[in-house]
Specification:
Distance between the termini: 42 Å
Number of domains: 1
Helix content: 10-25%
Order of helices and strands: EEH
Largest sheet: 2 strands, antiparallel
Shape: extended
Structural class: alpha+beta
């Protein structure tokens, strides 16, 4: 029996197509709170705004 994994956006609830996802990482100033990650579609990430950061390496 084959299994298929379906990714769903934590932001909009829409299904994330293959190769069209984004991960939003939230880092708190208080390190004891840790880090949160949200899965979303490309459109969700573009809608959120923020600033673009250059790739490292």
């Amino acid at each position: 029996m084959a299994r298929k994994t379906v990714l769903v956006s934590d932001i909009s609830g829409a299904e994330i197509a293959e190769g069209k996802g984004a991960t939003v990482r939230i880092t708190f100033h208080d390190a004891r709170k840790g880090v949160r990650e949200l899965d979303g579609t490309d459109a969700d990430a573009e809608q959120m705004g923020g600033r673009q950061v250059a790739r490292r390496g």
